[in-house]
Amino acid sequence: MASPLQKFRPSKDLAKRSAEKYLEEALYIRLFKDGGSEKSVRLQLNKFIKSHKRVFKWEVGDTLRKLRDRKLYYPALKLSEIMAKRGMNKTVSDQAIHLDLVAKARGIDAAENYFVSLPESSKNHLSYSSLLNCYCKELLTEKAEALFEKIKELNLPVTPVPYNSLMTLYSKIGRPDKVCTIIQEMKAANVTFDPYTYIVWMRALAALNDISGVERVIDEMKRDGVKGDWTTYSNLASIYVNANMFEKAAKALKDLEKINTRRDLIGFQFLITLYGQIGDLTEVYRVWRSLRLAFPRTANISYLNMIQTLTKLKDLPGAEKCFKEWESGSPTYDIRIPNALIGAYTKGGLLEKAMALKERALRRGARPNAKTWEFFLNYYLKNGDFKLAGDCVAKAIGKGDRGKWIPSPEIIKSFMSHFEQEKDVDGAESFLEIVKKTVDSLESEVFESLIRTYSAAGRTSSSMSRRLKMENVEVSEACKKLLNKISIE
Q: Is Repeat a UniProt keyword of this protein (predicted)?
């Protein structure tokens, strides 16, 4: 007679059918079936929500991880919230991940409110570490340090995670010396280092120009029995490159290739970039051939990386050949890839080639983006053609794909100096009208140049003083005198 366990154990055929069904209808496959853009993912997510189809909890977790890896935080948060409403219980680890998503999608205030709403049983080292990491990501130093002290006061289980977060914050705000202080604190508290601890420590020492110290960290890591991974040694190679220690960098890259046993795409691209930075064109091509063999259906991002590397090495014929290879086999015309060549052409003064490539991209269905127009803008500014440069500014502002495109202070200064020299009040005002569509506030130097332009042209203004007050701009004493001359009641 079959035991109760045997009676209710699913048959091998049923398990096989369930696995096959998952492979065909996995949630992340549904969400990414129309591409990886946030718009398409949101659309597919809404369809899934309306369908009320059931999914496994582990499947939701796997999908959330993939969404987070792609920085699709809003869809990830929505999925997490919907599954909670459907009764899917969250572990403390799930809550820590949800807190991170809330911070990224809705801001720190919302994350703090979510943390406060958690039951006391959920406020452990995972949720505290998650909130601390959110503070560190937003560079909220005072809040991060206060929370870090509270974590220690509560005697929560000691892990390297909160220390790593705080050290990363110090690195970002330019305080590598404080990273070294935290390292000593970890040693005094007998906190076990993880691979990332060694990485952030290495970066801090590199920022302090202590390359021998970086090498001592690697030795210490080996003595501690911690096996460095790809990230560890790629950081070491990058540190050598940035220190112009190209012989050591080349050796580190060779060692790095031995670690890339899984033949990761990111690994190949990193090698191409760093070999390019040390100027080794032969190795760049060798790694590119290996990448193409490992990934016959080569991704757009790989072509982009290769073309950018070749143009930096002044190998324009090689970059053009690589571009033609991509163009002949790509079903979608990714504007970033022609942009890489357009940038090289305009920088090299090859305007006709740049224009021809832009037109070819248009014929293939791609649209110039802000970066495209920025390349042409820089060319025209360099050649003193402010009329065409102004057209490029207007087009770039109108093509801000991910957030608005903002002209740099240097670009604005170049235009204002030109208008001042030409005594062109109308040109200056028209330019500033375009710029104000994307720049929230203009620097005082911009208005001072505008005032000097009015004065040089012998023009008056009934609103200049009012504009300065509205913009909360204070000009120099010399400009105040000119302002009195050009202002009329």
A: yes
